[in-house]
């Protein structure tokens, strides 16, 4: 099933200016000129003379904002006059793209390389691609790409081995060079301890961090450090991959902390890091009392943490997102030092537009009233998606009830997995409730475009076709998504709590209604598509889903009848 998660990309460019706030403001202002981009953080450093900016949005919007920011930096920052403590080689020193949700690393790499090409070709700035976007292994490490820094850049560019990936192999004294990359999301995560001892905190940090600690002869604390034949320290690796960590004492809080950078949360998520620190701390007679997240975190990471801690209790993890977030906050003590506000700490919630009315957030009565109003949207497409979400919710409910049924303790995980899948499908369908209305509004916008000149007419016609295709694809995705929920509903009718099988049966009927209703929208919208092979293929595939859903409904009803006797 195709994920309906919003496509969100993060960009964290570092600009070689941290003292002149007027210059910094001009750069961040051009970022905010791109509609849909959300500026999350601006962090200037006077000693480093460097500003780290963080913004998010759809991939296309983020790349456009990044290009505008690099352009403005090249106009305002003169690298021939730059000094600072941090390594650097250009006005825009680095510009990494980071996948947050709904986008793969492979796709992010493509966006990074397109951005790099545009910077190189349109701005005549030498560009190196690094991390996952690197074209060769020796350029993967940012430190290697930046070796020699700005002062050694002229010589480096004359070396054929260090020819830029994009842009001229010529020294631009004003702009220097830029590194564009694609990397994993980095989370700054601190775990609080019931001690003031930095030494004990460091010992725990060395236990968990990937780098580990130096190997010593004899006494592991005072013994002579072991070195290899090349004179390098031999290290004993820590227990967590993709984790950097140190221990420190925070006078403001009066406690020691393990300060961690989780450089790849798909390898070591926050909940795994937290639990491992708890284990290592306990082994040294220290207790973990809570934690804090520095900066923002993707929604998925918090939801995964909530599911993890529920599973440890052998409870179903197929519960609403709000409950998963509460469980994660309580389990890791994220609000011990300061209140953890999801609206301020979770990227997707920070991005949510204030005051924008979303259908999925309305009460049942208000949704019904809005549907019954004289406005043509929400219409049958949004209502179909909502019916599908409710039908899926019934299957999820039966899975949750079954996982907690007395005497079925050994089956909790089986039902929890069903409930989790049901909740994911339910969330996808709720997003499609609004997306169907968005698609309708997109058509209205296209029809409202000017059509005086021949060029305007052509642009308008093209926009109408694109909007019509989109408005046909959305209900088709509703069909696909709703059909995938039959697996959960059927399993609950077959094996779920016998007292609730009829609820799952109602869920099956709702899914069938959802799919039939969505198919009506596919058919009527496909009639306006000029690309006939595209439209005919979509109708053919939709007809297959419609027919298969009827078969599924009959099978489920027969199973239900046999269970009811």
Task: Describe the protein in words.
By secondary structure, the protein is α+β, with helices and mostly antiparallel strands. It has three domains: 8-182, Formiminotransferase-cyclodeaminase, Chain B, domain 1 (2-Layer Sandwich); 187-350, Formiminotransferase, C-terminal subdomain (Alpha-Beta Plaits, 2-Layer Sandwich); 357-564, Four Helix Bundle (Hemerythrin (Met), subunit A), CATH 1.20.120.680. It is built from 18 helices and 13 strands. It has helices at 21-32, 59-76, 105-123, 142-145, 153-157, 198-208, 270-283, 299-312, 321-332, 342-345, 347-351, 364-372, 380-403, 412-447, 454-484, 486-495, 501-526, 532-564; strands at 8-11, 14-15, 38-45, 50-57, 92-101, 127-131, 178-182, 187-193, 213-214, 235-236, 243-250, 255-262, 288-294. The strands form three sheets. Strands 1, 2, 3, 4, 5, 6 and 7 form a seven-stranded mixed sheet that branches. Strands 11-12-8-13 form a four-stranded antiparallel sheet. Helix 1 runs antiparallel to helix 2 (59-76) and helix 16 (486-495) runs parallel beside helix 18. It is globular. The two termini are 35 Å apart.
Main beta-sheet annotation: 7 strands, mixed
Summed over residues and divided by their number, the pLDDT gives a mean of 92
Number of structurally distinct domains: 3
What is the CATH class designation of the largest domain? Mainly Alpha
Distance between the termini: 35 Å
Count the beta strands.
13
CATH fold call of the largest domain: Four Helix Bundle (Hemerythrin (Met), subunit A)
- CA-based shape: globular
Q: Give me the Rg, rounded.
A: 28 Å
Strand content: 5-15%
Task: Identify the CATH homologous superfamily of the largest domain.
Answer: Formiminotetrahydrofolate cyclodeaminase monomer, up-and-down helical bundle
CATH architecture name of the largest domain: Up-down Bundle
* Helix/strand/pairing category: alpha+beta
Number of helical stretches of at least 4 residues:
18
């Amino acid at each position: 099933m195709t994920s309906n998660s919003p496509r969100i990309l993060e960009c964290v460019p570092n600009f070689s200016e941290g003292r002149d706030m007027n210059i910094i403001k001009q750069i961040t202002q051009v970022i905010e000129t791109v509609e849909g981009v959300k500026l999350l953080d601006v962090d200037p450093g006077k000693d480093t003379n460097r500003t780290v900016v963080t913004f998010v949005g759809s991939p296309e919007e983020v790349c456009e904002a990044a290009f505008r920011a690099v352009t403005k930096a090249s106009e305002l920052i003169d690298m021939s006059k730059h000094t600072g403590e941090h390594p650097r080689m250009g006005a825009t020193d680095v510009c990494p793209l980071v996948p947050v949700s709904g986008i793969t690393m492979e796709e992010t790499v493509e966006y990074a390389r397109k951005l790099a090409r545009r910077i190189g070709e349109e701005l005549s700035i030498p560009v190196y691609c690094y991390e996952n976007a690197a074209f060769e292994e020796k350029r993967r490490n940012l430190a290697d790409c930046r070796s020699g820094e700005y002062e050694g850049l002229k010589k480096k560019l004359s070396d054929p081995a260090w020819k830029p990936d994009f842009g001229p192999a010529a020294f631009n004294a004003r702009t220097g060079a830029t590194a564009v990359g694609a990397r994993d999301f980095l989370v700054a995560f601190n775990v609080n301890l019931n001690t003031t001892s930095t030494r004990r905190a460091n010992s725990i940090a060395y236990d968990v961090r990937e780098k580990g600690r130096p190997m010593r002869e004899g006494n592991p604390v005072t013994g002579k450090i072991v070195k290899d034949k090349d004179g390098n320290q031999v290290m004993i690796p820590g227990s967590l991959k993709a984790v950097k960590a140190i221990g420190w004492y925070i006078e403001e809080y009066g406690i020691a902390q393990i300060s961690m950078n989780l450089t790849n949360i798909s390898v070591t998520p926050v909940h795994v890091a937290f639990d491992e620190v708890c284990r290592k701390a306990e082994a040294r007679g220290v207790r973990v009392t809570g934690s804090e997240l520095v900066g923002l975190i993707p929604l998925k990471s918090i939801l995964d943490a909530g599911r993890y801690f529920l599973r440890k209790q052998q409870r179903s993890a197929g519960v609403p997102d709000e409950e998963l977030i509460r469980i994660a906050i309580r389990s890791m003590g994220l609000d011990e030092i300061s209140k953890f506000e999801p609206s301020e700490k979770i990227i997707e919630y920070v991005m949510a537009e204030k005051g924008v009315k979303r259908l999925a957030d309305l009460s049942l009565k208000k949704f019904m009233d809005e549907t019954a109003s004289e406005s043509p949207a929400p219409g049958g497409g949004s209502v179909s998606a909502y019916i599908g979400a409710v039908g899926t919710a019934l299957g999820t409910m039966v899975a949750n009830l079954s996982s907690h049924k007395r005497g079925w303790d050994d089956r909790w995980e089986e039902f929890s997995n069903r409930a989790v899948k049901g909740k994911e499908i339910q969330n996808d369908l709720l997003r499609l409730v609004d997306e169907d209305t968005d698609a309708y509004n997109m058509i209205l916008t296209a029809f409202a475009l000017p059509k005086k000149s021949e060029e305007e007419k052509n642009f308008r016609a093209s926009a109408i076709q694109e909007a019509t295709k989109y408005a046909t694809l959305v209900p088709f995705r509703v069909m696909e998504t709703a059909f995938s929920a039959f697996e959960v509903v059927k399993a609950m009718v077959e094996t779920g709590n016998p007292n609730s099988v009829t609820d799952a049966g109602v869920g099956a009927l709702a899914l069938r209604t959802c799919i039939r209703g969505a198919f009506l929208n596919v058919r009527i919208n496909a009639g306006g598509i000029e690309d006939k092979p595209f439209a005919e293929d979509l109708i053919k595939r939709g007809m297959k889903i419609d027919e298969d859903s009827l078969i599924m409904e009959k099978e489920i009803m027969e199973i239900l009848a046999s269970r009811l006797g």
